[in-house]
Amino acid sequence: MRRLALISLTALALSAMPALAQVTAITGGRVLTGTSVIENGTVVIDGGRIVSVGAGAAPSGARVIDATGKVVTPGFVAVDSGLGLSEISSVAGSDDQSNNANTISASFDVSYGLDPWSIAIPVARLGGITRAIVVPNHPGGSGGHQHQDDSDFAGAGDGGFQSPGLFAGTASVIHLAAGTDILVKPRVAMVAPFGEAGAGIAGGARGAQFTQFKETLHEVRLYARNRGAYDRAALRDLSLSRADLEALIPVVNGELPLIVTVHRAADIQQVLRLAREEGLKLILDGAEEGWLVAADIAAASTPVLLNPISNLPSNLEMRAARMENAAALNAAGVVIAIKGNEGSVHRAREARYNAGNAVSHGLPFEAAIAALTVNPARIFGMGGQFGELRAGAAADVVVWSGDPLEPMSSVTTEFINGQEQSLTSRQHLLRDRYRNGGRAEGGMPVAYQQ
């Protein structure tokens, strides 16, 4: 079985090798740029970048891909994802999305755990996903596996540090192209749970978490002003390690956004108040009851990462969850990004289905496409670099057989950084291996004939 797995992974790696770069023109399709629509458009790719987008003809000598009757979009961006970090969440050795060390919380950097050969990545590509915002797992988050005893106590652990920590670590941007280096940018945001999950970490009450959180920010500012004294052991004991204190300085300075997982409308109002008082730059994650306070979120210019099909009151934090949440937030002027399901790892490709459901409940189609493409890039400070079909942006381009939000539509051609990608996954290879008894000529493989 080990030999079979190695053969399958090797075949998948070989099949995923990108085609050589050349000038390519995708012509005749309905082009959704992320911000506009061009009928019978032409997208020209050269050197890993988009050269032009418009209604003109293909350049002389370019390779032409005829997209007549098809739809052309930017590559989709998976947000709040574990792609490249988690293979099987219940097998600890294959999951680098979570961390329980009390001396490393805010400083936990997921970029060092990325696996370019993850078998979940080609599956995500089949759903038109070309980039992802990968985040550390934490209590209250949408994915991964969290043990109850990791979040039901608070206090000082070994060395007097916070145990468990209020912060989960930092997020990174990756691309999903075949190859050996998928990291685009590390440390693009800090992550912290609030609401019921955050209260559990801090001792059981929301008020305790906010008090502890504000005191932690005070300690970070104290440390930043007195690094010399800290080095001489002439500063009072602090509740975070030096690595965590350093990691939080950009957060308290309002330079690095803080992804706050929060669900209840009242909790959303309180974290917005916290951000005003402390000068923090927020991104809300979840916000199932966000429609109740949409005007407050919009007034604070705070974006939201959401799953629009999260509509059941699974606990008292989500009593008002509804399918119209995405539409209501968008109508109020909130910038939204739509998530996949179960941590956006094995089901990351379902983000487009979620967007389609949001459209059926009032979200404009163009807003749904933006929530999968240009909005995530802008939210994480990379607007214009990807997620949009425009001159100068990375050539992440997907050709669809039809409406990309329709489940029966499929990817027919896909480019990441200008390199055409294989549309094969390990599941395809296993299907082909065992179809009709195992091999094209029939019969099981030799190892199974004994």
From TrEMBL:
Residues of the Amidohydrolase-related domain: 309-413
Keywords of the record: Signal
Cleavable signal peptide: 1-21
Keyword set includes Ligase: no
Coiled-coil regions listed: none
Pfam family name, one: Amidohydro_1
InterPro entries: Amidohydro-rel (IPR006680), Metal-dep_hydrolase_composite (IPR011059), Metal_Hydrolase (IPR032466), Metallo-dep_Hydrolase (IPR051781)
The protein's name in its UniProt record: Amidohydrolase family protein
Species of origin: Brevundimonas staleyi
